[in-house]
């Protein structure tokens, strides 16, 4: 009775439809659910957010609860909806692979109704002690049955319709995390069940590659993972990085079951299977609520998508007593979190100008609650991707927000438009400064060519420069930068250092004290390191790590500024794209001017790089040396260390820019080249003299 009450809650406030309407509506819902289940389970290409599908599912459940005569055994509410794809060998499951009932109340209190049902079904008295549960994450991927015979992986199968799945053994074997042999187990049969999923970073990287190649991007990690596993060509499956977590068992022969689900997971981990560490044993509803809340807070920082928590009665004996209803066990429930994909209206498309001048189309949305927060802006990445998705202003679109990844529009809901809407076009002029917009070479993105003249770039350039990992200027935040730029007080990086107390304290919300503090941190920021300074310049493609490598490698800013692309390529982790970007940056007069201005206001850092910085004289500063042959006492590495400590740079090839070639025994073609170019050749003694500052 209770159950029925709660399922008809969906009509709360509204009239329950009469039986004729209900009949019609149920037929509509069934057709629609079957259609979307086909797209989701069979084709791995849903066109509807899960939350919308779940809503229709609940509506049908509610109708069937109110009018039991509507219930047919083939209703989507009564069976698992997958199907075996043609081309795969069907696998009959020894133990059916079921679904899990969803607790629809996403508030933590949703755990209470599950606990109540369990207690009632177990006929526990009100004052009986709390039931023990195992709570774990509900991974958003697809279920796989791994059949181990005598400890060896024999077969992997999808869930299919629950009774029959697909043999995907070859594809599953490409997942390195899945052991081909279990540790310490030789039982005739152990079937392990778990979820194949794709990590968010792997998914983002995959999509970024697709984007750069101008290819279609994937909608979300779950469908990408499902598509990869159900891929007829294993070499294609191998290109999609997949992961796995075990969470249960299928058929077992000759292995004694542990008493509880949590002990079972421990045992699976011991066998070498990946088991997620974020799980707990919880007492009663209160324990479940606590875990649901704790994981809710952690959800964004997990490296993979979860759509909720699964609660399971911990004792396997009690699980058996509780048994199953149609497609679901009575001893488990999925308690969801707010959905990560929702539908909303695309109100407008605006262009955002990034710190480096990159132009990104941004969707202005009808505010929507997704992934736990209200989202009103989402990225559309680039104009090519936007076109491919066919999204236009006024459309109902699907917005995805998962973890700390920027919210994005993943597609539109296919429905006819009321009126013609033109396709979006990239403007020819930067919306922030009017400079010409250029298509980035070899890339799908566009940029403003205005540099520091562009106020959009100026603000972000200043903020980046002031950032904690760059020049670390305390007190220079968003709001202040907005004011400084908007009121024309600062038009260049160096301009920051020419502000006086008077000008600063005249600004809104700026007291004398904070003005003085800011001046103080500006002064302090001038004493910095070359790596921080480089990073602060905001050169495209130069992150913190690259800036450090550049500083270490070149030792001085002048050496870096004058480096050729070939020389830049010798820096660790610097590839052609990065090298070119750095080279282009320093080739532009206005960027060199920025640097000169900063030097003029008093920027200082120790040159010579790395550990050598504070160790006194740098006789080889700015010099490039090439080592060849075997030196009498110094190893190649030792010689290199000494040269670098003295501020010099060791290069792998001789060119006109080489200052010295140090040649030992059996020197080869480099020595010939040095002679040909007239580069000074030294022996080890000559090098030692240089290091001692004698030359
Ligand atoms: N968007 C669409 O058009 C569409 C269509 C059909 C279904 N769906 C979505 O698919 C889901 C339907 O549910 P379902 O019947 O496939 O099953 P389910 O996802 O609700 O629950 C069962 C599944 O949960 C998974 N799972 C993850 N972590 C687990 C854990 N720790 N323990 C046990 N199982 C775990 C298993 O794969 C298992 O098969 C809903 O989320 C629904 O929104 C969406
Ligand atoms: Zn601009």
TrEMBL record:
Keywords: DNA damage, DNA repair, DNA replication, Ligase, Magnesium, Manganese, Metal-binding, NAD, Zinc. PROSITE patterns: BRCT, DNA_LIGASE_N1, DNA_LIGASE_N2. It holds the Pfam family DNA_ligase_aden. Its EC number is 6.5.1.2. SMART domains: BRCT, HhH1, LIGANc. It comes from the Bacteria. Residues 615-695 form the BRCT domain. Gene3D superfamilies: 5' to 3' exonuclease, C-terminal subdomain (1.10.150.20), 6.20.10.30, BRCT domain (3.40.50.10190), DNA ligase/mRNA capping enzyme (3.30.470.30), Helix hairpin bin (1.10.287.610), Nucleic acid-binding proteins (2.40.50.140). One of its GO terms (molecular function) is DNA ligase (NAD+) activity. It catalyses: NAD(+) + (deoxyribonucleotide)n-3'-hydroxyl + 5'-phospho-(deoxyribonucleotide)m = (deoxyribonucleotide)n+m + AMP + beta-nicotinamide D-nucleotide. Zn(2+) binds at residues 430, 433, 454. The active site is at residue 138. It is an enzyme of class 6 (ligase). NAD(+) binds at residues 50-54, 99-100, 136, 159, 195, 312, 336. SUPFAM superfamilies: BRCT domain, DNA ligase/mRNA capping enzyme, catalytic domain, Nucleic acid-binding proteins, RuvA domain 2-like. Its cofactor is Mg(2+); Mn(2+). Belongs to the NAD-dependent DNA ligase family. LigA subfamily. HAMAP family: DNA_ligase_A (MF_01588). NCBIfam families: dnlj, PRK07956.1. DNA ligase that catalyzes the formation of phosphodiester linkages between 5'-phosphoryl and 3'-hydroxyl groups in double-stranded DNA using NAD as a coenzyme and as the energy source for the reaction. It is essential for DNA replication and repair of damaged DNA. This is DNA ligase. It comes from Roseateles oligotrophus. The gene is ligA.
